[in-house]
């Protein structure tokens, strides 16, 4: 059998960002509105710093305003909540993202609930979680949304397909399952207590791997021809002291069996950032009662 088709998230996200940039230009030209994204980082975690820098760069490239707020690791919870309140009220800010995880002395749920749901471009606020579950217009979490766009680009209509989502987090697993239900897939959510995970995965036309365990899902778990979306981003240590990024899927064995598969890096990761910009544009349009932008 020939190897699986590679689903190129770098190329696809680049095209998506070009589309977003042209809508932003139109919004600036026609309506004199520049969409703005505020990103808040608490602490100095090096991976988070790199990631926030990339987001800021992409935001500006797309023609939007980027507002970065870097706070020390010992920032009191109250100060963070006050900053969020001021961003909620700032008319130049249409989207707010607080980089997670936040330091342990800060209550993550309190932070999420402090963000105005209309500006919650992560889609983590209970109002957006509920709206997605109820099939209403919502701001949808970026990683599941990016994964869905890749699936639709590869498979077209998803109705009737068997999808298995491995992982039940609020950030990926649960919203991913909601999106797949909305597309009329038959959805199974697997997790650490699922019995005989390999045989559950073997049923699936669509496999979404979001467990956070390096290379856990093996090729012989995959139904031949299935589409595999690897959401995992794990940095592993190599014997020579260097590090390497790997997904939750054992790529070398899965690529022999799957019909199509996302690589890590260069798969879902870049789509997450593109969808963040997409959500900022959508949020901006809604806040100004402009016609919906559809992607
Ligand atoms: N409130 C919040 N929202 C988030 O969306 C959020 C967050 N907090 N905290 C951290 C995680 C992580 N995350 C990534 C997004 C893109 C890449 C990405 O573009 N990765 C590239 C390159 C990775 C590399 O080379 O390091 C790739 O996979 O090809 C990675 C990681 C969003 N997160």
Automatic annotation (TrEMBL):
<keyword id="KW-0378">Hydrolase</keyword>
<keyword id="KW-0658">Purine biosynthesis</keyword>
<keyword id="KW-0486">Methionine biosynthesis</keyword>
<feature type="binding site">
    <location>
        <position position="233"/>
    </location>
    <ligand>
        <name>NADP(+)</name>
    </ligand>
</feature>
<feature type="domain" description="Tetrahydrofolate dehydrogenase/cyclohydrolase catalytic">
    <location>
        <begin position="7"/>
        <end position="122"/>
    </location>
</feature>
<dbReference type="Pfam" id="PF02882">
    <property type="entry name" value="THF_DHG_CYH_C"/>
</dbReference>
<keyword id="KW-0511">Multifunctional enzyme</keyword>
<dbReference type="InterPro" id="IPR036291">
    <property type="entry name" value="NAD(P)-bd_dom_sf"/>
</dbReference>
<protein>
    <recommendedName>
        <fullName>Bifunctional protein FolD</fullName>
        <ecNumber>1.5.1.5</ecNumber>
        <ecNumber>3.5.4.9</ecNumber>
    </recommendedName>
</protein>
<dbReference type="GO" id="GO:0009086">
    <property type="term" value="P:methionine biosynthetic process"/>
</dbReference>
<comment type="subunit">
    <text>Homodimer.</text>
</comment>
<keyword id="KW-0554">One-carbon metabolism</keyword>
<keyword id="KW-0368">Histidine biosynthesis</keyword>
<dbReference type="GO" id="GO:0000105">
    <property type="term" value="P:L-histidine biosynthetic process"/>
</dbReference>
<keyword id="KW-0028">Amino-acid biosynthesis</keyword>
<comment type="function">
    <text>Catalyzes the oxidation of 5,10-methylenetetrahydrofolate to 5,10-methenyltetrahydrofolate and then the hydrolysis of 5,10-methenyltetrahydrofolate to 10-formyltetrahydrofolate.</text>
</comment>
<feature type="domain" description="Tetrahydrofolate dehydrogenase/cyclohydrolase NAD(P)-binding">
    <location>
        <begin position="141"/>
        <end position="287"/>
    </location>
</feature>
<dbReference type="Pfam" id="PF00763">
    <property type="entry name" value="THF_DHG_CYH"/>
</dbReference>
<comment type="similarity">
    <text>Belongs to the tetrahydrofolate dehydrogenase/cyclohydrolase family.</text>
</comment>
<keyword id="KW-0521">NADP</keyword>
<dbReference type="GO" id="GO:0004488">
    <property type="term" value="F:methylenetetrahydrofolate dehydrogenase (NADP+) activity"/>
</dbReference>
<dbReference type="InterPro" id="IPR020867">
    <property type="entry name" value="THF_DH/CycHdrlase_CS"/>
</dbReference>
<dbReference type="InterPro" id="IPR020630">
    <property type="entry name" value="THF_DH/CycHdrlase_cat_dom"/>
</dbReference>
<dbReference type="GO" id="GO:0006164">
    <property type="term" value="P:purine nucleotide biosynthetic process"/>
</dbReference>
<dbReference type="GO" id="GO:0035999">
    <property type="term" value="P:tetrahydrofolate interconversion"/>
</dbReference>
<dbReference type="InterPro" id="IPR020631">
    <property type="entry name" value="THF_DH/CycHdrlase_NAD-bd_dom"/>
</dbReference>
<dbReference type="InterPro" id="IPR000672">
    <property type="entry name" value="THF_DH/CycHdrlase"/>
</dbReference>
<comment type="pathway">
    <text>One-carbon metabolism; tetrahydrofolate interconversion.</text>
</comment>
<keyword id="KW-0560">Oxidoreductase</keyword>
<dbReference type="GO" id="GO:0005829">
    <property type="term" value="C:cytosol"/>
</dbReference>
<dbReference type="GO" id="GO:0004477">
    <property type="term" value="F:methenyltetrahydrofolate cyclohydrolase activity"/>
</dbReference>
<dbReference type="InterPro" id="IPR046346">
    <property type="entry name" value="Aminoacid_DH-like_N_sf"/>
</dbReference>
<feature type="binding site">
    <location>
        <begin position="167"/>
        <end position="169"/>
    </location>
    <ligand>
        <name>NADP(+)</name>
    </ligand>
</feature>
